[in-house]
């Protein structure tokens, strides 16, 4: 058996042997196939990159058919149960688990870079009272690139490491301040005696108390949510982060911009709105009929990659139970549970392989923490930061990588003759 593909171009009758490596052919090899000498080579038309590999990566493995998600080879279930967000961040960035000394150094470094320059605070305070926290986070992250101009030296290992530490450390500070800004509350400075996630909760919710002590079950649940969101291979925002060899602050700002969009980071908000609209369990059958008739979508169900079960959804469901133990049950949870039960038995959803995804329960948890819906995507962004940085690191060190520059199929006019405005408007 030869690892190649024989392509016959019926326009010319010519045959081509295209090598197959790692289950893929190179699009550039297809570019050699031409109708005649002067015409451009064959291109692949693939909106949304549904079947185009843009890189080799060893960060995250997903098998959507089997419902498998692994970071650097470790199953997400084990990481969520037994690891911590900062250890997972180390794993993603460095490619392997830390020794005790490496872990202590990593946690120490991140803890002591949580503060931002006072001018960043002034800059954040300049936003309007009703600024969306994702806009503030995106701008704040981009602004960091101007505070650390050395970050442009992306070929220096030590410089790269320092920016990665800074970025992971400062994201909760920026995210919490964006939250406080909308509420008109004073920004809370980081408390370096607290863990990463405790400190984030303190910066969000601390008022006049000397020390903010979050319930440890809530800390654990939020830490697990960060772990679940930490990476998801070549998704929309990772693709934005990977598009050019810019400094990591600017790259992550681009990722935040992509995540901000409703097709990417915003589905958990839609789930909450849907559950509220359904209102009571009695209304579920009508709602399900509406979905089956194509009048609406069951938000939080279905996934482009997972066609079995989103492994993150199972873990989130458990985290939701832990959170509700502390905060009291959200009545919407009963509707969500009943919806899931009915949908998992219904032929419409079963035959289309539609299962709950990560967003089905995450919005309920965030609401229990008393986050407004605009903050949901900020939480996603904080969790995703180590993944974006791991993807960025791979990009800048990968000799095969080129600047992202897809082709297009041009559909506009050609070779028109320009008439000056003075003649056109006469
Ligand atoms: N409710 C009802 N029907 C659905 C749903 C849904 N949530 N999702 C897919 N379908 C149907 C769809 O109508 C189609 O049916 P038919 O074959 O009869 O036309 C079939 O299932 C295949 O759907 P598709 O649109 O081709 O699937 P896709 O892979 O392009 O879309 C999706 C994936 C996530 C956009 C879609 O499932 C969806 O819109 N889900 C609801 C929104 C949501 O929860 N998004 C969060 C995704 S997880 C976040 C992350 O991982 O970043």
What does this molecule look like?
By secondary structure, the chain is mainly α. The chain has a single domain, classed as Orthogonal Bundle (Citrate Synthase, domain 1), CATH 1.10.580. Helix content is 52%, strand content 5%. The chain contains 19 helices and five strands. The chain has helices at residues 27-30, 76-82, 85-94, 100-111, 118-125, 133-147, 157-183, 196-205, 216-229, 236-241, 248-260, 267-278, 284-292, 311-327, 331-345, 347-351, 359-368, 376-397, 421-424; strands at 4-9, 14-19, 60-63, 68-71, 74-75. The strands form two sheets. It has a three-stranded antiparallel β-sheet. Strands 1-2 form a two-stranded antiparallel ribbon. Strand 3 (60-63) and strand 4 (68-71) form a beta hairpin. Helix 4 crosses helix 7 (157-183), helix 7 (157-183) packs parallel to helix 8 and helix 14 (311-327) packs parallel to helix 17. The longest helix has 27 residues, at 157-183. The model has no long low-confidence stretch (mean pLDDT 94). Carboxymethyl coenzyme *A (CMC) binds at residues 232, 235, 264, 267, 291, 297-304, 352, 354, 357-359.
């Amino acid at each position: 058996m030869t690892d190649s593909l024989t392509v016959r171009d019926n326009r010319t009758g010519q045959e081509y042997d295209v090598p197959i490596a790692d289950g893929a052919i190179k699009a550039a090899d297809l570019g050699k196939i031409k109708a005649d000498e002067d015409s451009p080579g064959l291109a692949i038309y693939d909106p949304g990159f549904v079947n185009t590999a843009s890189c080799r990566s060893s960060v995250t493995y997903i098998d959507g058919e089997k419902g498998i998600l692994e970071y650097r080879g470790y199953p997400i279930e084990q990481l969520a149960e037994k690891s911590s967000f900062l250890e997972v961040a180390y794993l993603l960035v460095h490619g392997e688990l830390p020794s005790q000394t490496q872990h202590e150094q990593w946690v120490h470094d991140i803890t002591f870079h949580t503060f931002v320059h006072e001018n960043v605070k002034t800059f954040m305070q300049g936003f309007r009272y009703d600024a969306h926290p994702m806009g503030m986070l995106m701008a704040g992250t981009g602004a960091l690139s101007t505070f650390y101009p050395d970050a442009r030296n992306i070929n220096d290992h030590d410089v790269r490491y320092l920016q990665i530490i800074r970025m992971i450390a400062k994201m909760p500070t920026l995210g919490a301040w964006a939250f406080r800004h909308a509420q008109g509350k004073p920004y809370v400075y980081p408390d370096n005696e607290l863990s990463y996630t405790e400190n984030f909760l303190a910066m969000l919710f601390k008022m006049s108390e000397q020390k903010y002590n979050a319930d440890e079950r809530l800390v654990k649940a939020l830490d697990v949510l960060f772990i679940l969101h930490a990476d998801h291979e070549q998704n929309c925002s990772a693709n934005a982060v990977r598009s050019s060899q810019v400094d990591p602050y600017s790259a992550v700002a681009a990722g935040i911009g992509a995540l901000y969009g409703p097709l990417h980071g915003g589905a958990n908000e839609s789930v909450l709105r849907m559950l509220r609209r359904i209102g009571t369990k009695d209304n579920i059958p009508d709602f399900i009929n509406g979905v089956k008739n194509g009048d609406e979508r069951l938000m939080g169900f279905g996934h482009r990659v997972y066609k079995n079960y989103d492994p993150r959804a199972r873990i989130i469901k458990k985290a939701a139970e832990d959170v509700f133990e502390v905060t009291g049950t959200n009545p919407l949870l009963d509707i969500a549970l009943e919806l899931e039960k009915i949908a998992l038995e219904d032929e419409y959803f079963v035959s289309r392989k539609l299962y709950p995804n990560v967003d089905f329960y995450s919005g309920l948890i965030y609401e229990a923490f008393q986050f407004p819906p605009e903050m949901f995507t900020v939480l996603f962004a904080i969790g995703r930061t180590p993944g974006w940085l791991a993807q960025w690191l791979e990009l800048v060190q990968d000799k095969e990588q080129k600047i992202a520059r897809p082709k297009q199929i041009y559909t506009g006019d050609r070779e028109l003759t320009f008439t000056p405005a003075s003649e056109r408007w006469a």
